[in-house]
Amino acid sequence: MARVLVVDDEENIRLVLCKVLQRNGYTVEAAASAEEALARLEDFGPDFLIADVRMPGMSGLDLCRELSARASTATVIVMSAYGSVELALDAMKAGAYDYISKPFKQDEVLLALRKAEEREHLRRENRALREVIRRESTLEGMLGKSEPMQRIFRTIEKVAAFDTTVRVSGESGTGKELVARAIHRLGPRHLKPFVAVNCGAIPEALLESELFGHKRGAFTDARSDKPGLFSEAHGGTLFLDEIGELPLLLQVKLLRALQEGTIRPLGGTRDLEVDVRVVAATVRDLKREVEEGRFREDLYYRLDVLSIRVPPLRERPEDIPLLIEHFLQKNNGKLGTHLSGVAAEARKALLAYAWPGNVRELENVMERAVVLAEGDEIAFDDLPPRLKEPMDPIARQLETDELSIKKTQRFMERTLIAKALERTGGNRTAAAKLLEISHRALLYKIKGYGLS
């Protein structure tokens, strides 16, 4: 049964309340002052406090504020013989859940406690539900409750156990490296190194040495032997980001490393065996690169054993509220702020924006907003100017660098379906008529786009 701490400087009040509550199954203790109540918090661990407002020393309202400052989970019900609307409001502002006027009836006290118990029960259920949603929407640092992301989570969990090459595609900022890290951590190589390299960030003249290592004297500045990233990742995973930037000559050497499990350092005379799982990522359309002669076809098919496409944020807008909350809490911890949330107008702007920079852009916007926020929540004025300009999502999509007709068509189709569902209040039959497609086709597309 619930534990109740009665706090009142009048002994008669304490005795009456203790008897009433004990008769109704509560575990009860009493304190003659707010200071005594605070001293007994840790030992007794009350679920509820019933405290008088006016007491010598610390008042009941001060007790509420102190409990809030200590992040106590106990629910406070305050009592006073000097009842007024203003006092009741002050009590609520101080953190009290309910207010009882003296002299009180036993039923009033019991009703207030039962209401508080019911609220606590609902809060626990909500916390448990949020935790379930959080667990189901999270995989190794990635967040997403949308159907596209849930499919990716299931794919990662399947492929992680198999020691095969994986190709990850997606726009910049979608989280391709997070996918690679998740595959590594969930697989049998998780105790070995995870080595990441951006093939587009290393000068072409140094790339071979970085990947495969070099022997002393291989070139002018090679004063000693140096192991390459393949050797550093031995037993683990090598993540090759922007593999589409790899020169054709190195593509040949990479293909040999993947097929034979051996590398030859620059200037070396013998091959070295390496045990490395490769996860490769690119924003480029490698199939088109192959057709235009910039990427080897044999390497493409060697990398394409298993492929995972990470969708842009505009294709999974239902994940945006989850990411907003995640980045808010992350920045609160990082920056020492205590923002409670996002104002309605600001949230609307965040949800309406197309996010051409994807999750990375959203993370940067949230950090900026947390730094600039002056109140206890992120306001519309804390957002960068580009988010404040109203623009139709289709028009914004056309302003991005995406030139693929297929991808843009998917985005426009999804946007129009979402608008039709919103306009018809979720009535799929009416939405199908607006869209001029069959009801069956609409159901198929709703499932395919992860809409609800």
What does this structure look like?
The model has no long low-confidence stretch (mean pLDDT 87). The protein has 452 residues and is α/β, with parallel strands linked by helices. It has a five-stranded parallel beta sheet, with helices on both faces. The chain is built from 20 helices and 16 strands. Strand 3 (48-52), helix 3 and strand 4 form a beta-alpha-beta unit.
Q: What's the gyration radius in Å?
A: 31 Å
The number of strands is 16
CATH architecture of the largest domain: 3-Layer(aba) Sandwich
The order of strands across the largest sheet is: 2-1-3-4-5
Report the mean per-residue pLDDT as an integer: 87
Q: Which sheet architecture does the biggest sheet show?
A: 5 strands, parallel
Determine the structural class based on helices, strands and strand pairing: alpha/beta
Shape verdict: elongated
Beta-strand residue fraction: 5-15%
Using the coordinates above, name the CATH class of the largest domain.
Alpha Beta
Number of helices: 20
CATH homologous superfamily of the largest domain - what is it? P-loop containing nucleotide triphosphate hydrolases
| End-to-end CA span | 41 Å
Unreliable parts: none
